[in-house]
Write a structure and sequence with these properties.
The protein is α/β, with parallel strands linked by helices. It has 11 helices and 13 strands.
């Protein structure tokens, strides 16, 4: 029986995933949730994180805080991506252990896997090949987070778990034209093209890479599901030095197909052009989600429904 009175710290609650996790916890009856904004607590600052854990009694942690972005952002700010993510996870995980926190969930990314990994991607493919160059610094930081959790579990007997989500989208995402991921970037681009009467929308790459997309509320639900598993059940589905679990839909589409779907959702009627001189990124990235399905979780939000909900949220924000 889960303790609904547990004190739960959600790191990164202002971000898309963190906010969804807070809502998922509240729907399940957890009401002792601790949060801090970046202004209140800089997770990259070791002294601040240490003082925070000394002042708060925390039972569980969801580590959703991260520096994230799309191809352009990763290429432009590689030092910031690797440094900030390394510092955040190292500080939180280490200080959590020092404070006696036994349960933690680290949220990684599917970019941890080799660029040319066999499809679909199984958990054991980690560290079996070269990473995608456009987001290698971010991927290395996320791999380090997995290994931090594994190492503290091995040495100190903690119960620190890791989930690797596929490409996420939904309300609360970053919709910056250049620094966002593909779904929010396309939503803004098609929306503005419709509003401004533009004849065409130009998209980076060839449109042929295949991507898997998961609605953020599904990701949050999966995260809480994994944390609620008893240790024996969770451990039975992982292996030493391979303790992370993939989270996804098990289905993918091309970027061209995603663009057509977003064009329909936004009501844009102009042309779509692809700039083949821009990078495509990884050719395909489809996660094998057999492990999580065996643990009793499946996604519930179809892609087109999720895109419609996301676009409605985006429009509501634009009107404010």
């Amino acid at each position: 029986m889960r303790n609904r009175e547990a004190s739960i710290y959600v790191a990164g609650h202002c971000g898309m995933v963190g906010a969804a996790i807070v809502q998922a916890l509240m729907r399940r009856g957890y009401d002792n949730i601790i949060t801090r904004t970046h202004a209140q607590l800089d997770l990259a600052d070791q002294a601040q994180v240490s003082a925070f854990f000394e002042s708060e009694r925390i039972d569980e942690i969801y580590l959703a805080a991260a520096r994230v972005g799309g191809i352009h952002a990763n290429a432009t700010y590689p030092a910031e991506f690797i440094y900030q993510n390394l510092m955040i996870e190292a500080n939180v995980i280490h200080q959590a252990w020092r404070a006696g926190v036994q349960k933690l969930l680290f949220l990684g990314s599917s970019c941890i896997y080799p660029r040319l990994a066999d499809q679909p991607i199984h958990e054991e493919y980690l560290l079996t090949g070269k990473l995608e160059p456009t987001n290698e610094p971010y991927a290395i930081a996320k791999i380090a987070g997995i290994k931090l959790c594994e190492s503290y579990n091995r040495q100190y007997g903690t119960d620190y778990r890791s989930v690797m989500p596929t490409n996420l989208y939904g309300p609360g995402d970053n919709y910056h034209q250049e620094n966002s991921h593909v779904i929010p970037a396309l939503i803004r681009r098609f929306h503005e093209a419709r509003v401004n009467g533009a004849e065409q929308v130009v998209i980076w790459g060839t449109g042929t890479p295949r991507r898997e997309f998961l609605y953020v509320d599904d990701m949050a639900d999966a995260s809480v599901h994994v944390m609620e598993l008893d240790r024996a059940t969770y451990g039975a589905h992982t292996a030493p030095l391979q303790s992370h679990i993939n989270v996804g839909t098990g289905e993918d589409i091309t970027i061209r197909e995603a663009a057509e779907m977003i064009r329909k959702v936004t009501g844009y009627e102009g042309k779509i052009e692809f700039d083949a001189d821009k990078p495509d990124g990884t050719p395909r990235k489809l996660l094998d989600t057999t492990c999580l399905r065996r643990l009793g979780w499946v996604p519930t939000v179809p892609l087109e429904d999720g895109l419609a909900r996301t676009y409605q949220w985006f429009c509501n924000q634009e009107q404010r």
